[in-house]
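Pipeline run #58 for the internal structure catalog. This entry was flagged by the ingest filter as a single-chain record with no existing model, so it goes straight to prediction. Upstream metadata was stripped on purpose; only the residue string is passed forward. Reviewer on rotation: M.T. Logging verbosity set to normal.
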Amino acid sequence: MLKFINMASVCHYLRYVIVLNFKKMNSKQEEIKARKDSILAITVGRYISTVCPVSSSFIVKEYMYDLSSATIRNILAELEYEGYLTHPHTSAGRIPTQKGYRYYVDNLMKEIHLLEEETSMIKIEYKKQKLELEELMDNLSRSISETTNYTSMISVDGWNKKLFCRGANYVVRYLDRADVQKIEEILAALDEKERLLEIMNRNLEKRIGIFIGSEMACSQINDCSLVISEYKTKKGPSGRIAVLGPTRMNYERVVSAIEYFSSLIEEIC
């Protein structure tokens, strides 16, 4: 006796199988992406703090002991193939590329805040002082530089070619001192106030703008990154705060510092 197949039930079952497999595939893809993101974040963070290429054995030993070195090596190779990492010829470890820093800044960077003791001391110092705007901005620029250990700049809208710049000496600390030409190029760029103001005054898509390497379109500082924020005081003056450092700068701390000092200017001015 022939049995008739219920096609509606068959189609329903096939849809169920397809959806289930699709979910499993998506879940697997998300797991792979999360793992790659974690390894990239570890590599960038470690390189920023040590300036040393990061090896698969280090990642396994310190972070992912449940994975094999071979697995980590394969993921690092994929990240290099995709342009997020590269490696010096003399080392098996990887270092971030400009694309790697950009992805890190846009997707992986954690939000941090300056220590409460730091912010309290800074605020008390400036609130008890009664300074003219020019002296205040110069002092704030110095404080930003000391807090971040990079070069800081503050502009005031309407003050043509006036730029409060502090911490140019930090350039020597984060560049190879043997690369005298690059140091001279960056120091020369810091003297070109009009050019720096042009870069600082670009449109920002967010309150904090981060320009990495060649994104600044200035060959003299293409080994650097620039973090920029706007501010607007209660009494009217507005402008920009910026920090210039190496592409391997401590982005979390710099962003936190710039956010804090932007708010401080708006509070005390």
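catalog note: The chain has two domains: 7-108, 116-268.
catalog note: The CA atoms of residues 134 and 164 lie 9 Å apart.
status: ready for reviewer M.T.
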